[in-house]
Amino acid sequence: MEIIDANEAAGAQVRKLYDHPQGQALMAVLKPGEALRRHTAPVDIFIYVLEGEGAVNVGEASARVRPDLLIPCAAGVPHALENTGEGLLRALVVKLGTN
């Protein structure tokens, strides 16, 4: 069994924590002012904010995010995440279905 230390990541990174034919779990870590550029995924995803403050865009909608918020995003819909806070923003990104 492999145990992953999700706190090791620093900077604008996305690290794969778990990979399975039916989905993936990734950890996104962004420093203040950093962002994950607008992109799409071929499968449904959700983003669960663990730490920090930021802004998310899904399609044409925008929202402020904070810990314990879950943001769903359908396959093919453009989305982006930005750290607008003063500390790290850590979010769990889960891809559902076939990769």
Task: Name some characteristics of this structure.
single chain, 99 residues, mainly beta, Jelly Rolls, 5-stranded antiparallel beta sheet, 4-stranded antiparallel beta sheet, 9 strands, 0% helix
Summarize this structure briefly:
By secondary structure, the chain is mainly β. The chain has no helices and 9 strands.
Explain what you see:
Strand 1 and strand 2 (23-30) form a beta hairpin. The relative contact order is 0.32. Strands 1-2-9-4-7 form a five-stranded antiparallel sheet, with no helix packed on it. The chain is built from no helices and nine strands. The mean pLDDT is 89. The two termini are 22 Å apart. With 99 residues, the chain is mostly beta strands. Helices cover 0% and strands 56% of the residues. It has strands spanning 13-20, 23-30, 35-39, 45-51, 54-58, 61-65, 70-73, 79-83, 89-96. It has one domain (6-96): Jelly Rolls (Sandwich), CATH 2.60.120.
Assembly context of the chains: single chain
CATH A-level architecture: Sandwich
Q: Might you state the CATH topology name?
A: Jelly Rolls
- Tell me the name of the CATH homologous superfamily: Jelly Rolls
